[in-house]
Amino acid sequence: MNRKGPHTGMPPRMTQEQRRISTRRKILDAAENVLIEQGYANLTTTKVSMAAGVSQGALFRHFPSKIELMGAVAQDVYHTLAGEYESIFDTLEPGSDFIRESIRLLWKTFNAPRQMASYDLTFAARTDPALQARLEPVVRDHRQRIGRITHRVLSSAGISSKDFTALADLILMGIQGAAINHIAAADPDALEHRLNYIECLAKQLTRKSPKPHK
Questions:
Q1: Alpha helices in 89-187 (DSSP H)
Q2: pTM for the full model?
Q3: Pick the CATH number of 66-207 from 3.90.550.10, 1.10.357.10, 3.40.50.2000, 3.40.50.720
Q4: How do residues 191-205 score in pLDDT, each as one tens digit?
């Protein structure tokens, strides 16, 4: 009888820890997709487990409740959004109007499906105390990370501010408000006016750092 050796071309079997991580990833991806496509109100653990191709028992071994699952999804979504927020600045051309161009690029990301899913969770938390409690530390950590990214990126562009976290809040919450309003009443002219106003306020909170004397 031929025995299969280590060089038969067969993929190595995953360890128990690798299987655990893989299953968790499948569940999170499936939950995010269901949230994006059907909204929080229509999301159930049954739909998520079916979309992930796992049993409900497997889902609950990783996430004991729907609230815990949504908290993990929020962490995942915000982690990705923060990365996208940071990468936006890499696309700006040297010498461009940094704040103006940043706001226009951010607007595009704030209409992406993943961002819409985060809005859905925020709205649901308004009337769901358990969800609100689970999301609160996630949102707080996300806000602090965005503040740090804003500080680092704008500082490297020669722009200073007394409070980079407040500046990030102004820009992001302003664009979020514009995006939410745009969902219900799409008006390109009104949108451009709002973005211009956000830009003006942001510029009032910043100043160009003086160039060092040679």
A1: 98-109, 113-125, 129-156, 164-184
A2: 0.78
A3: 1.10.357.10
A4: 889 899 888 888 887
